[in-house]
């Protein structure tokens, strides 16, 4: 439900769920069936120490079959530091810095899914490219915008979230319905503070996203954008 163009309400539907019941693409449309960029560096992208501060997370079943067999994450999550990650796509690599201090349960889930290969060889089914927002939505192996990992987890929001270019955030279908779907922001976007921000995208990654956006989309999503005119595929997500 990422429909934010004309109004904030529209946007909320846009990014809210690309699954229409499971995760979200950030817009009602994305589901419809349903950050400033931060360059990764050795100083800012350190893997958090295993013995550091932790928090307890809950990942209950969302009542749906997972799009791909996967185990729910461990409930104990690191709650400090940052974690480097890379999304390898057929257009190039997108470097990420995951913020475990601000969104420990979100990062814990993303890392767990990545390490289990959940995101490997999966499509990114929607490009939202309109005045007011620019995002690439990924994270559903089924490619329908309605698939997820079979579990959900609570929001990690301060109420002050913003979504500038370079932001990595979770898509959802409403409060506390986070799952596997996420979106990468390639243009400053005006969304309500309803989507967990859990990392940033490096400059090289933003260039890749700009190239992806340039292929265009079929404008099939009522909330804005639609399926890419050329397949966009996540080949692998690596942590570290």
From TrEMBL:
What are the record keywords, sorted?
Isomerase, Rotamase, Signal
For this protein, what is the EC number? Answer: 5.2.1.8
Q: Where is the signal peptide?
A: 1-19
Gene Ontology molecular function: any one: isomerase activity
> Organism classification, top ranks?
Bacteria, Bacillati, Actinomycetota, Actinomycetes, Propionibacteriales
The family line of this record is: Belongs to the cyclophilin-type PPIase family.
Q: Domain (PPIase cyclophilin-type): give its ranges.
A: 92-239
Enumerate the catalysed reactions.
Answer: [protein]-peptidylproline (omega=180) = [protein]-peptidylproline (omega=0)
Root EC class: isomerase
Q: Which PANTHER family match?
A: PEPTIDYL-PROLYL CIS-TRANS ISOMERASE B-RELATED, PEPTIDYL-PROLYL CIS-TRANS ISOMERASE-RELATED
The job of this chain, per UniProt, is described as: PPIases accelerate the folding of proteins. It catalyzes the cis-trans isomerization of proline imidic peptide bonds in oligopeptides.
Protein name from the UniProt record: Peptidyl-prolyl cis-trans isomerase
Q: Where is the composition biased (Low complexity)?
A: 23-39, 47-56, 75-84
> Pfam families under this entry?
Pro_isomerase (PF00160)
Where, by residue number, does the polypeptide cross the bilayer? none
> What top-level branch of life does the organism fall under?
Bacteria
Q: Which InterPro entries match?
A: Cyclophilin-like_dom_sf (IPR029000), Cyclophilin-type_PPIase_dom (IPR002130), Cyclophilin_A-like (IPR044666)
Q: Where is this region: Disordered?
A: 23-84, 219-240
């Amino acid at each position: 439900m990422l429909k934010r163009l004309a109004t904030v309400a529209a946007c909320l539907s846009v990014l809210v769920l690309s699954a229409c019941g499971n995760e979200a693409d950030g817009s009602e449309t994305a589901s419809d069936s349903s950050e400033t960029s931060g360059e990764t560096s050795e100083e800012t992208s350190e893997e958090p120490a295993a013995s550091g501060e932790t928090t307890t997370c809950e990942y209950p079943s969302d009542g749906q079959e997972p799009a791909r067999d996967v185990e729910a994450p461990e409930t104990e999550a690191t709650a400090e530091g940052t974690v480097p990650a890379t999304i390898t796509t057929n257009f190039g690599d997108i470097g990420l810095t995951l913020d475990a201090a601000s969104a420990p349960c979100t990062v814990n889930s993303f890392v767990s899914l990545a390490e289990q290969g959940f995101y490997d060889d999966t499509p990114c089914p929607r490009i939202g490219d309109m005045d007011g927002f620019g995002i690439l939505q990924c994270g559903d192996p089924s490619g329908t915008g309605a698939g997820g990992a079979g579990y959900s987890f609570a929001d990690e929001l301060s109420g002050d979230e913003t979504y500038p270019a370079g932001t990595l955030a979770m898509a959802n279908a409403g409060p506390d319905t986070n799952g596997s779907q996420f979106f990468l922001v390639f243009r400053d976007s005006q969304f309500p503070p309803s989507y967990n921000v859990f990392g940033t995208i490096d400059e090289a990654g933003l260039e890749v996203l700009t190239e992806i956006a340039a292929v265009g989309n079929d404008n099939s999503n009522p909330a804005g954008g639609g399926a890419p005119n050329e397949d966009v595929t996540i080949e692998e997500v690596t942590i570290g």
